[in-house]
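ASSEMBLY PREDICTION REQUEST
Request ID: AP-0331
Submitted by: J.K., bench scientist
Number of chains: two
Total residues: 967
Priority: normal
Notes: Please return the full assembly, not individual chains.
Input sequences:
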Amino acid sequence: MNSYFIGIIILLLSGFIAASFSKNFKTIVLTILSAIGSVFCLIPACNVLLGKDILVKTFDFNELFGAVNFVIDPLAAFFIIVICVMSFVSVVYSNGYLKPYLDSKNINSHLVFLPMLIASMLAVVTCQNALMFLICWEIMSLSSFFLVIFESNKKEVVKAGIKYLVFMHVSVLFIIMAFALLSIKAGSFDFAVFKDVLAHNKSLANIVFLLAFVGFGTKSGFVPFHNWLPDAHPAAPSHVSAIMSGVMIKTGFYGILRGIDLIGMPSKTIAFVVLTIAGISALYGILYAITQHDLKRFLAYSSIENVGVIGMGIGVGMLGMAYHNPAVALIGLAGGIFHILNHSIFKELMFLTAGSVYLKTHTRDIEIMGGLAKVMPITAILFLIGAVAICGLPPFNGFISEFLIYFGMFKGLSINNFEAVIVMLFAISALAFVGTMAILCFTKAFSIVFLGLPRSEKIAQVKEDCERIMLVPMGFLATLILLIGIFPQKILLKINKIVFSIIPSTSMNVWSGCSEIFMTILTIALVVGCFAAFVLVLVVLKLRLTKSKIQMHETWGCGYDRANNHMQYTASSYASPLLSMLKPLFKKVFDVEKPRKLFPHSAHFSLQFEDIEEAYVINPLLKIDEWFLSKFESLQSGNIQSYIKYGLIFLLIVIIGSLFIG
Amino acid sequence: MIMKLINLIILLFVPFLMMGLIKKTKSFWGGRKGPSIMQPWFDFVRLMKKDFVISNTTSAVFKITPVITFASVIFAGLFVPLASGNAIVNIPVGLIVFAYILGLGKFFALISAMDTGSSFEGMGASREACFTSIVEPAFFMVIGSIMALTGNYTFDALGKILSSAGTYGILIIVFTALVLFIMLLTEGSRVPVDDPATHLELTMIHEVMILDNSGSDLALLTWANGIKMLLISSLIAYMVIPSNVSDFVGVLLYLGVIALLSVIIGTVESSMARIRMSHVFEFVFIMSSLALVVLSLVMARMFGG
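STATUS: Completed
Returned structure:
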């Protein structure tokens, strides 16, 4: 356990050390130091997952916090591994990505906060004391805020950053409420004490879990608390978006899973609430992802979708627990946790490839892209692998976790209860809908960005793929995606272990059903492996055999031979049939100038989709808020005497108040 | 083992007969003699021998897509019960593997269409993607309801509707068959959703996506489409064929049902025109409403009095 703290301290210091070097060595020093720090943290985590005892380290802060326990149990170990590996990959990538920015005035603070974010996440997932947890959580939010506003000279970046900051503080408010309620009842800040209290008080457990779910759900990006995500991700540099989307939002899930661990058996109501919100998040996220034409904004919405899918897995698991069906509980939770791992890999890959595209094209607008596969072939292949994996298609890792979640839902049909069966059937249907829309969404993104002809001059000037230092980490992620897709067994075993540590084993025989899912997954892994091999053989055969038979010609334009790049289908036109069908779910903002006069003159058309929640809920609320707060504007006079007056009045109120309450 | 081999042969070669029979039926209703029932096979062989013309715009995606699509339907076929007996790979929730492997084929079909940079193919791809997203949820809901009803999570559930639901079962089978039939028309790109015989690119869906494919690529894609139709037809066949017959009778009955479905498809194509594109959604949405009907029937049977 000591090595874990050494790792965290190395990470904390690494930023300061790196910042003090001259500009050509900064990122390299940071990479090396964070590699060392990550290894120190990984060793105890791997040991725990491989079967060693749970590690505990207690610090005594006496009056302030009481005893502070840092614990590495299987759940924490899983998150530690995800955080260390995925963050390190991003840090390696930043060596290439930050090159054009090395003269920026924010580069030093960026290098300090990047490892600080990693360190604070590592602290969050091990800390078992409510107050200390909140402090680490706050450091995590703040350091990520400073990372988001890296390009602080741009107005929209700062705006997105402030929005992020506000959302994080609303979310932490809910977490504080949950912890406050608990610590009043328990008389302690320690999680273990919380667990005892919650075991005897089911109604308290419900309230606390719901409060914590809102708090942690905001961090994860569940609808309707998701609004910060689509703004913050495009604003941040790509490797930061990768860490935030791949790793940081998963700390919200850590909170939710820890919550399940603490409350023991969840009630049916909570399980239904979680499943419903997760289902809505998945549908909402993917629908809006289809509408977006900003490459990173679109990925952010896709994160919301995947958060929903993970949540659905967890919800199914909780429903299984609530109905005392161990197989459903096991498969659902295992699917959810597996999807956390998978999403962190492929979403990170997607953000990194998006970053490479941005670095080369200097734009995030996919409508003007096209044909990049010819000049950036490796990035294109990596993006394609990520896209196929994120749609949950075999033979990649997303398929295995989505399969588990589906499997949990189908198993849930055997719960002999009307509500449960209906909910499961609609959940299955919703997940199928999400899956097919994901295919639409990612075929759109891939084909508009990488295939066809360039849609603008800017894109046609791109000449080469990005540097090797950026390709290697992405290649590593793509390899992981394929390996997990074909050999999921080992990882599934470890994940089962995590689930067993969450499910209260006394009230459930969790082992039943375990062997069945294992056999099924084995069969599927085998079939998927054969499938991958079969495809590979066919592709190689086909390319070999037909080499001599190919003639090149222009695309068939149905008789018209002057087709040009502007006649290609665009992202908007590709998505239009589905979006016109689902019209009421969006707020469309048109900007049209029609050609009216006799002779041709300039005309344009653009269409933006606004987030319906932002347009109809958040903005009106903000308006009311603004109106209310403007009533107090006169208090801020700017003259020091009146501020002293306020201070005096406040003191008087406190004194008089304490006399009465006394 | 022999049965599995026969299934594999059926999977690979019956699609040609099926397409031939559809053509034959259409000629019959059109008052023509029509080509031989083996014509799709002859076309296939002819196409396999030809050279390709490939667009300058395309990347490697376009070249590898036909084999990926083909591989995906073959592997999806392993999870579906064909003539007599279980699926070749019979695992719980094989439905998911079936749908997602087909999904991979579709993914590549879509990006390959976009790869040519042709606006026609983009149009086809966008429509195909859209219709799929309506079809799949309804399909999953129907099969899920039946699995809930029979308590069996493999495709075998389809064969157990009658034994576990009694008279309700007949209604459930009828509605499920309707859902699957609409799915067959949509996924197989037949009239009234799509017209494989038309030459107007603007109104086509699947056919326009493969506008630039030629030679053996086109042959493979047509074959794959035929196999996909056979797979969905097999699901319908599996529901109606009694499970207690011998293998030989089972195969005969199966071929009979497939032939009947081909004749029905041919008759539908001869008796009605393609629906206007903006109304295709409404047609495909019938699936969703029928799926809800199946759902409520199952619920009534399971939890009703």
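REVIEWER COMMENTS: Chain B touches chain A through 79 residues (CB under 8 Å).
SIGN-OFF: pending second reviewer
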